[in-house]
Amino acid sequence: MPIALYEPDIAQNTGTILRLAACLGVEAHLIEPAGFALSDAAFRRAGMDYLDHVRILRHISWNAFAAHRQAAGARLVLFTTRAATSYLDHAFARDDILLFGRESAGVPDHVHAAADIRLIVPMRAGLRSINVAMTCAMALGEAVRQTSGFRHA
Question: Is there a domain that residue 147 lies in?
Fold first, then answer.
C-alpha cells in the first residue's frame, strides 16, 4: 500500500515517514517540489540508514504523479482535516495510495477534488491538526492491519 507526500516542507517529518515506510515495507511517492533539498542533512538524519530499505518514487509535479496513479488504476485516499469520514470507518484496499499534504498548508483544492476518498483522523475540537508523520503512522498502521497484517521478522 503506497503512501504519497504532496510537496512536503519539513525534512524531518519526511525522513520519519520514509523510515516508517521502510519498516512496514511500503513504497513512498514524493510529489515535488519539496520545501527542502532532498539531499538535506536533516532529511537523511531523520531517515537514517532506513532510506536504503524503502522504494522511493519521485514525481516532478502533481500532474506527473496523477498520470502515474491513473496508469496504475489506484484509488487515491487523501487524509485531510476537511473530511467528514474517520479513517477508522473506512475499508482500505491493498492498492490504495494514501496521500498526505504539506505540513504548512495541506493540499490545494484541485488535489482535494482529485481524491477518490477523503478521510480524517478524529481529534479534539479547537485544535488544528496532528503532525503529518504521526497521522501517516496512524493511517498506515490501520490500512496495513486491514489489508495484510503486519509481517514480523
Answer: no
